[in-house]
Amino acid sequence: MKIKIGLLGLGTVGTGVYKLITSRGGHIRESTGVYPEIKKILVKNLNKPRKVKVEGLLTQNAEEILKDKEIKIIIEAIGGISPAYEYVKEALSSGKHVITANKELIAKHGEELNEIAEKNKAFLKCEASVGGAIPILHQIDRLKITDEIDFVGGIINGTTNYILTKMTTEGRSYKEALKEAQQLGYAEANPDYDVKGFDALYKLAILMRKVFNINVPVNSITRKGIDEITTQDLNYINKWGYKIKLFAWGKKVKDGIFAGVEPVLVEENNILSRINDVNNAIILRGDSFGEYVFVGKGAGELPTGDAVVADLIDILLNYNIKDNKRINFLPIRQGSFTDTFYIRLETHKENILGLKKVLKFLKEQKVSIVESSYENGTFTAIVKMKKSVETFTEKLEKITEIKTIFKVLQEDITEEVSKFEDFVEVI
């Protein structure tokens, strides 16, 4: 038995999908009893040189695929919102199954498209939209059956992880590391989508919908990129035994969800500190299984293509663990997954009075100091707070200038925290 497939787009992801389906078709038939055959491929330019032999398959007319009754499955590899949204909506409305790697599309319109799919008894699969080759959405489906998951987070953007790896391990400046990422094809000419955290934001929204059964407006999640990380901060971070990663996270609490995309410090003995280059890692925490960390390639032609083909096999097997279709609308609240932070302050005075004013405030707020340094009027430290970070920063900004503040993902902070009486060495 054969099943006809329409492929929308033949860029990096589309090419990887085409290679895998054509090379592994026989193996897929042996496993599922169905042979997948790509009948048509939508492209912008018919004459563009290709890495694969696709003679007779190309078209510039999407309707040749969307209106073809023989084509039962659509694989969308265009990216962006339009025209991908219109194509996917039309395909699902006509009862065709859809597989997509488009994280922005699913983050912004996933709920609507899921409703259309359910109404027309079609599958909408999007494993490749998060984590590249990591089959995280499949794992969440399984774990949710027996466990309550209350935290999801991780390194989910390969481009920024590559840039930060070069900055922390080879001492490259941000501009140098970005330029290299662009030369290797990891970053676009305009890198904002990655370095300002938009890509990670869309992926986080998809993960949170899957984990928490909530529909999250992406503009309600705090987002910070890596483009403002300074060499000065990196020097202290490395000196104190940490790495910095762009971390996307969501934490469920009683009355809502805490969430964010931002640079975060991790200890060198934490597994996340060893996730380098374009690799991704995703953490799930549950009431029974404790914590799982899933690691794999987060980008690339074949890793992403592999996730698409995994969704295809699920469809061919007619396999589907039903989601809880009751989608909640819990508010995104201000909060944190940690009570430990890296801060860099300008005390305005290059003398002991400026520092003493800050130290007196920290003592009054019952803040413990894990690491610290004072140079040329700049106080840098890793601190452990008892109050909310919002309250802390609001009060601190009244007496000094906060230049940088990062969360610290730290499982066990040493009990040997510094005492305020021991600041002779700092001063």
Give me a quick take on this structure.
The chain has 427 residues and is of the alpha/beta class. Helix content is 35%, strand content 26%.
Explained architecture:
The chain has 427 residues and is of the alpha/beta class. It has three domains: 2-125, Rossmann fold; 136-298, Dihydrodipicolinate Reductase, domain 2 (2-Layer Sandwich), CATH 3.30.360.10; 340-422, Histidine kinase CheA-like, P2 response regulator-binding domain (Alpha-Beta Plaits, 2-Layer Sandwich). It is 35% helix and 26% strand. The protein has 13 helices and 17 strands. The chain has helices spanning 12-32, 63-66, 84-93, 103-119, 136-146, 158-169, 174-183, 192-195, 198-212, 231-239, 301-316, 352-364, 389-396; strands at residues 2-8, 35-42, 58-59, 71-76, 97-100, 124-125, 149-155, 222-223, 242-253, 256-267, 279-286, 290-297, 332-333, 340-346, 368-375, 378-384, 401-409. Strands 7, 8, 9, 10, 11, 12, 13, 14, 15, 16 and 17 form an eleven-stranded mixed β-sheet that branches. A six-stranded parallel β-sheet has the order 3-2-1-4-5-6, sandwiched between helices. Helix 3 (84-93) runs parallel beside helix 4. The termini are far apart. Mean pLDDT is 90; it is low at 412-427.
CATH topology of the largest domain: Dihydrodipicolinate Reductase, domain 2
> What is the first-to-last residue Cα distance?
77 Å
At CATH level 2, the architecture of the largest domain is 2-Layer Sandwich
| Superfamily (CATH H level) name of the largest domain | Dihydrodipicolinate Reductase, domain 2
Biggest β-sheet description: 11 strands, mixed
The radius of gyration computed from the alpha-carbon positions, rounded to a whole number of angstroms, is 24 Å
Helix fraction, binned, reads 25-40%
The string of secondary-structure elements, in order, is: EHEEHEHEHEHEHHHHEHEEEEHEEHEEHE
What fraction of residues sit in β-strands?
25-35%
CATH class value of the largest domain? Alpha Beta
- For this structure, the quaternary state is single chain
Uncertain stretches of 5 or more adjacent residues: 412-427
Q: What's the number of helices?
A: 13
The structural domain count equals 3
